[in-house]
Amino acid sequence: MMTSGEAQPSGGSAKSTSPPQPAREAPGGPGSLEVKFTVRPRQLVRTLFIVCVSIEAALFFLDYQVNYGRLTEIDPIRRLFNTTREDGLASWMGVTQTALTALTLWLLYATVRKMRGASKWQHRGWLILALFVTYMAADDGATIHERMGSTFREVLERPTGGGAAADPTILDKFPSYPWQVLFVPVFGALGVFMLVFLWRQMSDRTSRIMVLGTIGCFAFAVGLDFLEGLDPGHRWNVYRFLSDQFLSEFTQKRFGRSGYDTLLHFSKSLEEVVEMFGMTLLWLATLRHWMSLTDTMRLRFDRSATKAVS
């Protein structure tokens, strides 16, 4: 057996073998290689949607099975799958998803700035949304709005000079969590801005439906949070009414817990899952829009400045 580098005997027919082709050099200079990725937007968005929704549904189901189905009695494992805790898998999922949405919005902002014909209104709109969702990612990870709400209550309820009791405040009339007094007006205004801006930027029906779904999910989650913050004896607390009328006997036999505690837990669990689903819709809507801006995007690493210094 002869290798391709050996001579062929006379009279034999030698098959020519093509040498391996070197990788194509990029215009940046000798030795630099060009790497290409081809993305199919519709397939990518569909896959991400299925993956995200599957994870969200699994987190809700596992919370029920582990914490109320008594799948395990090991407390650290139960806390890990508890969707109402800030140190569980659901919290990690929410923070990661929000951070990915913020990254997509920053990519949109950077892309639109490079496009001809884009107005300053578009630049500022994408910048505002990128900053807002970046804050939401930090808020999810550090529970900023809850901590600021508690700080707000402490400052308002601090006794005045001379040891006298503090004067009545807005929190005495507001029945739910104090953070809502501070943040809901701001979040509401930004939500309206998000709806109007994205509706004008996204012309396809699917993306607009996803944006509407995002706003609806966020509003529904805030409504659930409002109900969860009511005192058990408050006249607006429908959870107390439902538990007393329909659930107490069933949950006590099935889970060994009161109907009110059970309903409150699953309301918080549903709130977290609805928030995650709303962020899924926002992420995929903005990702669809970013990929629709152009067929080809090129990222070039310019090392000329480094070479000049060296």
Shape: globular
The gyration radius over C-alpha positions equals 28 Å
N-to-C series of helices and strands: HHHHHHHHHHH
Low-confidence stretches: 1-17
Strand fraction band?
Answer: under 5%
Count every helix, treating DSSP H or I runs of 4 or more residues as helices: 11
Q: What class, by secondary structure content? A: mainly alpha
Helix content: 55-70%
Please outline the major beta sheet.
none
Number of distinct beta strands = 0
Oligomeric state: single chain
- For the terminal residues, how far apart are their CA atoms? 52 Å
On the 0 to 100 scale, the average pLDDT is 86
Give structural notes.
Helix content is 66%, strand content 0%. Helix 1 runs antiparallel to helix 10. The protein has a domain at 96-159 and 166-292. The protein is mainly alpha-helical and 310 residues long.
List the helices and strands and how they pair.
Elements: H1 41-68, H2 75-80, H3 89-114, H4 120-142, H5 144-156, H6 170-173, H7 179-201, H8 205-228, H9 238-254, H10 259-292, H11 304-309
Helix pairs in contact: 1-10, 3-4, 3-10, 4-7, 5-7, 7-8, 8-10, 9-10
Supply database-style keywords.
mainly alpha; 310 residues; globular; 11 helices; disordered N terminus
Short overview:
The protein is mainly alpha-helical and 310 residues long. 66% of the residues lie in helices and 0% in strands.
